Amino acid sequence: MRRYDFHHVDVFADRPLAGNPLAVFPEAEGLTDAEMQAIAREFNLSETTFVLPSTDPAAAYRVRIFTPAIELPFAGHPLVGTPWVMAHVGRVALRAPRTELLQQVGIGTLLVTLETEPDPEAPGSGRLRVRRVVMTQGTPRFGPEVSEADRAAVAGALGLPSGAAGLPGLPPQVVSTGLEHLLVPLAAPEAVAALRPDLAAVGRLTGRLGVVGIYPFALLSSNAAPPAAAVEARARFFGPSAGVDEDPGTGSAAGPLGAYLSARSRLPGGRLTVHQGIEMGQPSRLEVEVEAGSAGSESVVRVAGRVVPVITGTLTLP
């Protein structure tokens, strides 16, 4: 029998049983593609990751990411939770006040920073633990704005009145930092909370638009704060075609949202806090940083969050 240890963690959370669950297999050599997909289907989480030796000499390891339905070349909370687990099991040596490493994924090799602090369970020992994980995403890519005709289809799929998808100066648009998502601005957080999507219609729409999912969001009224303060938003994510009807914390969509708001001068301090998963009973807090490019250079997008351990186990296969 083959045995593979796994770690189930909650990402974008500061307590267990909140945030976005993730299963990580830190030593996945020997598993076939079909087995990885079957394991992800068995766990039935938004994503499950499998760590393998890197084919890029600069990277510490390679991560393969599976939803219950498909493999993804990039994702958000898997690339925050996986390095946390790798540090937790001793595969990454921690340094104070931060440890930087490169992790290889389908879209390339990306930087991740593990911010560290003294381990309160071992005072005076010099032992460190990870306080927060900051992942650098891919270069922002701005796709088409949704046409007026498609806005009605988007609204209908989300269960909204026909004119409710989009705001003046903030049209629905496809944006990517590694995965294409349709960002849909709504007028108020109450509208986000009240969404009752037609998932079959959402699936048809995402297939036609060539996106992984739809990310409706609303800016919070507290955004009258000083320019240096983080803008806040409430969001939800629907991606039934990828096997994720609703996701409690979507880093691969929060990053594009930060880039979108920055490009439209709605992110004066370059920082965004996204609240997601509330309607699912799994509140997630995603921290986005956008470093605007200058002199023709491209913006850098980072998504950060905390990770908490929940379950450790062993999978046995013949």
Outline of the structure:
This protein is an alpha+beta fold and 318 residues long. It is built from six helices and 19 strands. The strands form two sheets. It has a 17-stranded mixed β-sheet that branches. Strands 14-15 form a two-stranded antiparallel ribbon.
What's the arrangement of secondary structure elements?
Blueprint: E1 2-11, E2 20-25, H1 33-43, E3 48-52, E4 61-66, E5 71-72, H2 78-88, E6 98-105, E7 108-118, E8 128-136, E9 141-145, H3 148-158, E10 173-176, E11 180-185, H4 189-193, H5 199-209, E12 213-219, E13 231-235, E14 237-239, E15 244-247, H6 251-263, E16 271-276, E17 284-291, E18 300-305, E19 307-317
Parallel strand pairs: 2-3, 4-6, 11-12, 13-16
Antiparallel strand pairs: 1-2, 1-19, 3-4, 4-5, 6-7, 7-8, 8-18, 9-10, 10-11, 12-13, 14-15, 16-17, 17-18
The helical percent reads 10-25%
Oligomer state equals: single chain
Secondary structure class reads alpha+beta
Total number of helices: 6
Biggest pleated sheet: 17 strands, mixed
Topology as a string of helices (H) and strands (E): EEHEEEHEEEEHEEHHEEEEHEEEE
Number of strands: 19
Over the alpha carbons, how many angstroms does the gyration radius reach?
A: 19 Å
The overall pLDDT, averaged over residues, is 95
Task: Describe the structure using short key phrases.
19 strands; alpha+beta; 318 residues; 17-stranded mixed β-sheet; globular; 6 helices; 19% helix; two-stranded antiparallel ribbon
What features would you describe in this structure?
With 318 residues, the chain is α+β, with helices and mostly antiparallel strands. Helices cover 19% and strands 38% of the residues. The strands form 2 sheets. The protein has a 17-stranded mixed β-sheet that branches. Strand 16 (271-276) and strand 17 (284-291) form a beta hairpin. Helix 3 (148-158) runs antiparallel to helix 5 (199-209). The longest helix has 13 residues, at 251-263.
